[in-house]
Amino acid sequence: MRRTGFTLLEISIVLVVVGLIVGGVLAGRSLIQASEIRSQISHIRSYNLAVNTFRLKYNCIPGDCPNASDFFGTAWRANLHPYVSATGSGDGDSNIWGWWQDVNGFPSAPFGEPMQVIYHLYLSGLTDCCNPSNFSGWHVSTPYAGLVFPTLKIGNGGFIAMNLNNQNGWWMGVGSLTPAAVCCGGNLGDYANFTIGSPSGQFRLTPDQALSFDAKVDDGLPTTGNVFMARRTGGDGLIHPEAYHASYNCITAQNGYNTGYTLPSYSPFVKWQ
Fold it and tell me: What integer is the mean pLDDT of 2-7?
């Protein structure tokens, strides 16, 4: 008599093999993410070191130097983004300003001093991104990460300097200038929306990525410590700390990361240290 089907032993062996494969894939993903988190921490720390070295060398902070042409000349300003100060200099108040708000005489625009931070660090030879000549025109759908601000090691976006509650730092999970309205149920603003074809903010961090990063460098909470979740909200044109809201999906009522929400929707703000 011909046997049909499989024996319990054969099925058990197949299930064990499948379990090993799935376990190996999951373990591999976990190792990859852990490696990316370590790389991102090192990258942010290298930029913090660059900022501190710049401050000691030039007696001002990058992006805010009121006399940048004395250090870097004027030729580099030929390719400045149209919303950066025409002089490529800051106002010397030690805060990195420049969004849609006309602060300290700067254009009402989404760049200003934040973009100059990246340029000044590059021109000083302290970082390898980003060359002002990379900007060749206004293209709202062009990915700017890697062209006009550094690329993240986690996620697909970049990071840029910003000011949050009079604290300078790096705002992570930014990309192009294509606006979108949806992030955790609320408007996050153009910088962090990088949404070519998708309002989900595909260039921000997922909850797991944000939590892993925060837990490694700070307290693992999105509303306290030196790492905050931040977004642009209200009419002042500045970024503000994220907070729990019943209509949003980012932060739980216990002020923790909502790891049950899987979309890339977090933009951490990391204070300069």
Answer: 65
